[in-house]
Amino acid sequence: MDNKIRNSSDYSHCRPGVADKLTTSVDAVEVARWQKQGRKTLGSALSSTRLQIERRTRQIYNLLTNEGFTAVADRVRAKAVDWIKPRKFTWEVRPEDVIAADLERRPLNCLLPIVADQPIMINWVMVPAGPGSGGHTTISRIIRYLQAKGHKNRVYFYDPYGGDQKYYEHLARQHYGITCEIGWVRNGMSDAHAVVATSWPSAYAVYNAGTAGKRFYFVQDYEPYFYPVGTNSALAENTYRMGFHGITAGRWLADKLSREFGMDTDSFPFGCDTARYHYEASARRSGIAFYARPETPRRAVELGLLALELFAKRQPGIELHLFGTDMAGTSLKFIDHGVASPEKLNDVYNSCRAGLALSLTNVSLVPHEMLACGCIPVVNDAGHNRMVLDNPYVRYAPLTPSGLAAALDDVVCAPDADAHSKRAAASVLTMSWDTAGAAVEEALYRSLLRAN
After folding, report:
1. For residues 349 and 276, is the Cβ–Cβ distance under 8 A?
2. Which residue has the higher pLDDT, 369 or 80?
3. Exposure of 7 by Cβ count < 10 A (0-12 exposed, 13-18 middle, 19+ buried)?
């Protein structure tokens, strides 16, 4: 037999009959080898499956024992959400608008002539919102103020998701009190003295529009912080390089955008709706109010809940009131107010000695609302909070569960708590959204006159 055979299946050189026997023998060996390999693979797969089943069984048992059925249900929901969510990137701005926004070649927008103290035309470009948006509430307050001063406003919605136009117009009028003309960017904008972006997606629409008018940016928070470092954070940051004149909620944003991006900025002070939020002398104050919105990560809800757990162990007789969203399923014992109306919140604040309102970026409207009702807000100690709140009755605390719990404990145990509450409410009586509106009006006039 030729000992130079290179292919075990090639026996063409053998005598008839011998090749058949050899082939049959080799085939049997091959089959046996594959069967053995198959049994080994199947055994390995079964072993791995058994290990995973045992692991998941122990995990579920531990969760049920230590945290209850809710914890198991939460894990199942989280896995389900991860499974069904889109695998592709979700654009919050139309990609074609990003491509069109060449920041190296800024468009030269025509300017309409302006006369000091004469009414001006303002286009507001915003993403449509459902009920309860604090940012849209502030914008609508400013629009109403300017409208009352004789200026003409138009609202243009920018919606990359293709929402229903009539529905969002209805919400804008019913929930935010917008009475001016409402249109959609996709249908084009009329010329105006000022064209105002109100969020980072809308900034791309304002940048690309051929509409006449000086560009402004109504900035209420540092929106790159809303995302992990990635495409959305980069796209949001780039809007501060578009050359708009910034009008910001509070001085912190004005300083940050001017310092880091060279933007021309003005700021307006936070207002407080003291007609809706007010001190009630007859109220019995004993609880703690917590602004809890887990869907808004910058409000650090998880840290707040840990702080309340520590506080509840120290003060088990004090009621905890949560508001902002439906918090059902949390192990903490509390009264859940969900998405509450201003009238309901006024009652909640007046029933509480202290409130917890955390913010990792620009502050929300909540601390001032609490103050107006005599509820002492405990906030995380940060430069942006101190600069914007600027109130001696705000209690600052380290952003740790123990630090926040200790501050809440100090407030509720203070010997002069009633008098302190009354003084705190008096400290914001002069705060008005008219003051904020006047600051915006002045900033618009000053910038427009300088441009002309």
Report:
1. no
2. 369
3. exposed
- Enter the tokens of residue 60: 């579920």
* Range 287-429 has CATH code 3.40.50.300: no
The yes-or-no answer to whether 95-271+435-451 and 287-429 have a common fold is: yes
pTM listed for this prediction = 0.81
What is the residue extent of each domain of the chain? Answer: 18-84, 95-271+435-451, 287-429
In sequence order, the β-bridge partners of residue 289 are 321, 355
Q: Which residues contact 442 (CB under 8 A, 6 or more apart)?
A: 266
Count of other CB atoms within 10 angstroms of residue 137:
18
**What angle do the packed helices 134-148 and 165-176 form, to 10 degrees?**
70
Spatial neighbors of 37 by CB under 8 A, at least 6 apart, are none
Give pLDDT tens digits for 100-149: 999 999 998 999 999 888 999 999 999 999 888 889 999 999 999 999 99
Q: Is the dihedral angle over the CA atoms 434, 439, 442, 447 positive or is it negative?
A: negative
CATH topology of domain 95-271+435-451: Rossmann fold (3.40.50)
Q: In what order do the strands lie in the sheet with 121-126?
A: 181-184, 152-157, 121-126, 194-197, 214-219, 245-249, 265-268
* Chain position carrying tokens 């902002």: 324
